[in-house]
């Protein structure tokens, strides 16, 4: 770019995305005089999904604002918890879409009852963005390029590569309603109570003899019970509910097996 100079100050929470020289306070940036502020910010490394507000000379502006020479720009991080779409009903449940690299996070969100669609094969960025828009889902990804696609309904960068931290990041940022043990960790369908005699033919002998309480996915018909690794799953659920307690306690539900959780 070769045009007006502006002064840009990035929130410390956005330091991951910008070059080292832009992490310690305001720095100059040269624009072309025609590009929007949103384009300028993204060209400096920050996906707009991670921007909470753009403030120019003390006044908040839209991403479509075209900066003029000498203007001072503050790029603020998203607030937490984040209201995804101001026009959405405040009690509308959030729905997520996770890319191919976030399978463990998807299963853990489902364990907590959060609607988390997941593509186990790479369907490509255009298809993921279209799915986000078509189903009004928040796309979760560590791919910054994917999060810059204009078709997205909403998106968010996942800041860690560790599943425990990823889950904490998403729950802290979006505060989705939690209802543990109510969703299929394999396909995201809703679980329903199942009678032992109705699922007996699909159980191994040891399971039939050891367990009496079962649930079944209404979509893929996978059968669930309180499996051998239940304690590990219970720790994940307990930790989430302790740090992010639901506004209204969820009723007890059949437990999911550990074999579907990474």
* Number of helical segments with 4 or more residues: 8
Q: Runs with pLDDT <50, length 5+?
A: 256-262
CATH class value of the domain at 5-77? Alpha Beta
Through-space gap between termini: 46 Å
Strand order within the widest beta sheet? 2-1-5-3-4
Number of strands: 12
Brief sketch in words of this structure:
This protein has a domain at about 5-75: Beta-grasp domain (Ubiquitin-like (UB roll), Roll), CATH 3.10.20.30. About 25% of the residues lie in helices and about 20% in strands.
Explained architecture:
InterPro entries: Mut7-C_RNAse_dom, Ub_Mut7C. It holds the Pfam family Mut7-C. It comes from Streptomyces silvensis. This protein has a domain at about 5-75: Ubiquitin-like (UB roll) (Roll). It is elongated and about 75 Å long. It starts with a strand and ends in a 19-residue tail after the last helix. It is α/β, with parallel strands linked by helices and about 260 residues long. Mean pLDDT is about 90; it is low at about 255-260. Helix content is about 25%, strand content about 20%.
